[in-house]
């Protein structure tokens, strides 16, 4: 059997340039992954690491996690992934248990490792420093063996301490061999990585990708925060294999699917689910959407035998009599037994405990010989296979007549909550350690489509529930904290003398806040009072303080949408983003009140023209342009700007991140223009967020002296995220690329921004104060981190004019599909305007609002920017790139009706009530919340004025926003199966 590293090296030699790992803002080829992981291994060895030792990984799940674990294996080590979101005490215990002095982390996470500062022997290895090491040579092959331990996963333990399960390479190799053959996985597949790396499901997708040459996409927390985000990733990334999803999350996905959006699964050829009982109703519903084109597996397996022991492929015609979907039959490399209380193998349909013998069986639990001997026993049925050892799972199952196995229940108190396997006894142990608690019992309660923990305790004193939660939080991760608590006089017992857990499951308990002990601050105004009432209703809790963090008291993305659906009509200023940014009722209420106070004047039908501010004149001529550097050239706007420059006969240098930059440019040119790489294109792999763009100073200087102009189109345009990230990309990234102008002052700098800057100034009541200014004030700020960082970048760039630099700012309007053919960006489903359009088509209604709609075709926008960039004489430094003649929303709806879409205009209040009514589908409700969130048709007095821009640049041929063009936009959306209508202009 080949080892992990031997198989991986074969992949690198075969397809080193192929993408191995990808996340939202980063990707690595197999060669890059090989080199970076070599650096990790080299760094460990050089710092005294010895083969067979343990290395902790303290990182959020990311590309860096995979680089680290592969590097640890190359160094001959065993990786142990710690979840930074878990309590310090738990992570500290794990570090102590594995007896390691090596922890791999990064600058962002290292600051949370302060609990280890007392240990001077600890080697905290920062990835940034490791990557900076130019040497990626391991000085010879690593002699890994299939018998070598590879990783340790810590699961919940009955003693109150987690227990480490030690797994060898051969278990992984056996598992991947099965998946590669039966699932027909190849190097063209794109695999979705979902599970956290402290959870053994991560082994499935990660090593399947590394050892088959397929691409692994690591979905981040925001992308899996809501079902729509997750499905968008699946579609946009062309995911073909989803090895395993937690059953609870899969439940949410299936309930989100409709006939209209089931095409989001078009690329997926296989989905696996596991972790908890899969109901027949859920399986049948999913198969009804995907049919036979997507294979669907119910997977089962404990950590102790390397992730998976059985699998069941769900047929399209699953019988309506099936409630519990089988977990299937044993997989290659495994032998399963169902054993009764007498130690005999069960007959068909007889319930017994599942025992598993496996090539992937664990070496046992670290430093826990007693527990190891209890569950890893001599095989009484087949002593000559798999080292003669069998693992007793504690799961009660039965074999059906057709040979498949059906899960019945847990033999003990071990359960799965949100996909995490936990021992209820661990929680009970921690509760019993609390002063005053005499006895504690924890049970599981079914709540809608989820499971929650409910804890009961006895005490001679009254113990505040919040204090119990506060103490538990120090040792237990959030998924192990009881959601309900109740103090009893006595714990009920069954006739057998054991705790009557069935009786406890029927007793109602009090929902508690995961905030722990805190003062309840009552609402102090009507807004806070309204929000408290809605939070209590949606979260189903009696006590909410105005300073409670929504996400600490049971909130998540679905709850945010539900809350917003209740309050949006009353408080339209609140947005989805606000809940993630502001988190508490007092902060949300403050925003509502502040917006009400600062709002200029309620719209009365008089529109406000947002002109090209600030007014900055220019007299000097701009140097002739022959070679232009373009950033963001693989994006929608940047690619069209680059293509227009090429059409003008100009040489273009395209700055693209990653070593596969040329391939990305090639794919972009093919996608948007159906043409090959142009001889006038030079592609440079660089990173805007790094000094000298990640290039050497010599190469950076050489680049500066070769170009005449820069069109800076790259930016993070999402409206969600932390300020630090937006500052890094939108502000610091702009400063980094401007360093080219510092070297060569003849370079003209053209900065792409957004009309959202002036729109937010108007919304926040600041426009009248600044519209006549000749520069952006130093202390001016906007609430949105996106538009605020774009405005900061504008100010910094325009300030460079004071030092004699030639700089220009272009604020882009509502970029729409190409005027020539309606072609739009690939992620059409993320565009607010198209989502608004889809909603109106689905409900056949539109609100009667006063809105001058801007359509700026992408090819028209690119033409304006390039014409300006190639113009020698300018009168101003700020341009608005949007259509100078926006059309009334009513006219837009009228055009839609000319295209046979039958959209009825209704009063706004009626429209809002209608799209949120109870009989609407989940898809419509999701679109509706975004609509009410400001991403759609609303009364607005803003007109993005570009009259001066068009006049000064002598733009004579304007696109006609009429039936023919609108028809092209909708027809393209229909071809992409985003809008399911056929339109012929």
Automatic annotation (TrEMBL):
UniProt cross-references to PROSITE patterns, sorted A to Z: CARRIER, PHOSPHOPANTETHEINE
Pfam families: AMP-binding, NAD_binding_4, PP-binding
Keywords: Phosphopantetheine, Phosphoprotein
Protein's UniProt keywords contain Lyase: no
Domain Carrier: 522-596
The keyword Phosphoprotein appears for this protein: yes
Highest taxon of the lineage: Bacteria
SUPFAM superfamilies in UniProt: Acetyl-CoA synthetase-like (SSF56801), ACP-like (SSF47336), NAD(P)-binding Rossmann-fold domains (SSF51735)
Matches recorded under InterPro entries: AA_adenyl_dom (IPR010071), ACP-like_sf (IPR036736), AMP-bd_C_sf (IPR045851), AMP-dep_synth/lig_dom (IPR000873), FAR_NAD-bd (IPR013120), NAD(P)-bd_dom_sf (IPR036291), PP-bd_ACP (IPR009081), Ppantetheine_attach_site (IPR006162)
Family statement: Belongs to the ATP-dependent AMP-binding enzyme family.
Descriptive protein name: Amino acid adenylation domain-containing protein
């Amino acid at each position: 059997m080949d080892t992990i590293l031997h198989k991986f090296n074969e992949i690198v030699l075969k397809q080193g340039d192929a993408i191995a790992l990808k996340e939202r803002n980063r990707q690595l080829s197999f060669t890059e992954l090989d080199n970076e992981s070599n650096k990790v291994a080299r760094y460990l060895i050089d710092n005294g690491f010895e083969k067979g030792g343990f290395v902790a990984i303290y990182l959020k799940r990311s590309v860096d996690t995979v680089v680290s674990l592969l590097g640890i294996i190359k160094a001959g080590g065993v990786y142990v992934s710690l979840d930074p979101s878990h309590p310090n005490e738990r992570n500290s215990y794990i570090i102590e248990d594995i007896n390691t002095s090596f922890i791999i982390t990064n600058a962002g996470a290292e600051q949370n490792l302060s609990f280890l500062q007392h240990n001077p022997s600890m080697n905290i290895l920062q990835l940034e420093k490791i990557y900076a090491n130019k040497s990626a040579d391991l000085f010879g092959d690593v002699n890994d063996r299939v018998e070598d331990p590879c990783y340790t996963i810590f699961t919940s333990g009955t003693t109150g301490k987690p227990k480490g399960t030690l797994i060898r390479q051969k278990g992984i190799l056996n598992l991947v061999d099965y998946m590669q053959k039966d699932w027909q996985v190849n190097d063209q597949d794109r695999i979705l990585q979902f599970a956290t790396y402290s959870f053994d499901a991560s082994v499935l997708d990660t090593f399947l990708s590394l050892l088959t040459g397929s691409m692994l996409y690591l979905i981040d927390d925001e992308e899996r925060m809501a079902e729509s985000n997750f499905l968008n990733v699946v579609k946009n990334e062309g995911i073909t294999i989803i090895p395993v999803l937690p059953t609870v999350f899969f439940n949410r996905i299936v309930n989100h699917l409709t006939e209209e959006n089931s095409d989001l699964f078009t690329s997926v050829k296989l989905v696996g689910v596991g972790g908890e009982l899969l109901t027949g109703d859920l399986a049948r519903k999913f198969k009804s959407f995907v049919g036979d084109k997507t294979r669907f597996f119910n997977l089962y397996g404990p950590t102790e035998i390397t992730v998976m022991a059985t699998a069941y492929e769900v047929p399209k015609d699953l019988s309506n009599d099936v409630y519990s979907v089988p977990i299937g039959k044993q997989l290659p490399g495994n032998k399963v037994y169902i054993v009764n209380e007498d130690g005999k193998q069960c007959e068909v349909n007889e319930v017994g405990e599942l025992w598993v013998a496996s090539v992937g069986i664990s070496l046992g639990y670290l430093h826990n010989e007693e527990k190891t001997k209890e569950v890893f026993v001599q095989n009484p049925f087949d002593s000559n296979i798999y080292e003669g050892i069998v693992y007793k799972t504690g799961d009660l199952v039965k074999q059906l007549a057709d040979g498949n196995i059906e899960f019945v229940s847990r033999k003990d108190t071990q359960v799965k909550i949100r996909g995490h396997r936990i021992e209820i006894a661990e929680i009970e142990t921690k509760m019993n350690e609390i002063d005053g608690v005499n006895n504690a019992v924890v049970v599981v309660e079914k709540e809608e489509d989820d499971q929650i923990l409910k804890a009961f305790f006895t005490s001679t004193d009254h113990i505040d529930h919040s204090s119990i939660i506060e103490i538990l939080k120090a040792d237990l991760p959030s998924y192990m904290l009881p959601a309900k608590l109740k103090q009893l006089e006595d714990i009920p017992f069954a006739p057998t003398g054991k705790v009557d857990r069935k009786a406890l499951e029927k007793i109602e308990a009090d929902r508690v806040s995961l905030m722990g002990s805190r003062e309840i601050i009552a609402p102090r105004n009507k807004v806070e009072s309204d929000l408290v009432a809605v939070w209590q209703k949606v979260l189903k809790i009696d006590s909410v303080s105005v300073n409670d963090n929504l996400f600490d008291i049971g909130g998540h993305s679905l709850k945010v949408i539900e809350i917003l659906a209740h309050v949006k009509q009353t408080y339209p200023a609140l947005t989805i983003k606000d809940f993630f940014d502001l988190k508490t009722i007092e902060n949300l209420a403050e925003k509502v009140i502040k917006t009400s106070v600062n709002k200029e004047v309620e719209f009365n039908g008089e529109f406000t023209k947002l002109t090209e501010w600030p007014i900055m004149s220019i007299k000097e001529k701009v140097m002739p342009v022959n070679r232009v550097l373009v950033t963001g050239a693989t994006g929608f706007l940047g690619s069209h700007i680059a293509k227009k420059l090429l059409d003008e006969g100009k040489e273009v240098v395209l700055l693209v991140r990653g070593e596969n930059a040329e391939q990305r440019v090639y794919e972009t040119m093919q996608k948007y223009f159906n043409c090959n790489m142009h001889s006038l294109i030079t592609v440079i792999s660089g990173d805007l967020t790094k000094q000298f763009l990640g290039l050497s100073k010599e190469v950076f200087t050489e680049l500066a002296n070769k170009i005449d102009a820069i069109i800076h189109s790259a930016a993070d345009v999402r409206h969600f995220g932390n300020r630090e990230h937006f500052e890094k990309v939108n502000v610091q990234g702009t400063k980094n690329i401007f360093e080219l102008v510092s070297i060569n002052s003849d370079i003209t700098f053209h900065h792409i921004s957004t009309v959202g800057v002036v729109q937010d100034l108007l919304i926040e009541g600041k426009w009248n104060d600044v519209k006549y200014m000749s520069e952006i004030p130093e202390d001016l700020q906007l609430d949105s981190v996106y538009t605020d960082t774009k405005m900061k970048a504008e100010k910094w760039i325009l300030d460079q004019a004071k030092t004699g630099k030639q700089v220009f700012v272009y604020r882009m309007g509502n970029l729409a599909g190409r005027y020539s053919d309606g072609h739009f960006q690939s992620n059409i489903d993320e565009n607010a305007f198209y989502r608004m359009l889809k909603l109106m088509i689905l409900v056949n209604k539109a609100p009667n609002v006063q809105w001058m709609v801007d359509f700026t075709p992408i090819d028209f926008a690119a033409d304006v920017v390039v014409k300006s960039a190639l113009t020698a004489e300018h009168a101003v430094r700020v341009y608005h790139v949007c259509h100078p003649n926006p059309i009334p929303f009513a006219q837009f709806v009228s055009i839609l009706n000319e295209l046979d879409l039958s959209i009825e205009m209704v009063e706004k209040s009626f429209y809002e009530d209608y799209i949120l009514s109870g009989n609407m589908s989940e898809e419509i409700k999701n679109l509706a919340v975004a609509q009410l969130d400001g991403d759609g048709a609303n009364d607005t007095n803003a007109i993005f004025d570009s009259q001066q821009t068009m006049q000064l640049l002598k733009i004579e041929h304007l696109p006609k926003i009429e039936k023919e063009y609108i028809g092209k936009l909708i027809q393209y959306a229909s071809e992409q199966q985003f809008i399911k209508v056929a339109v012929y202009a």
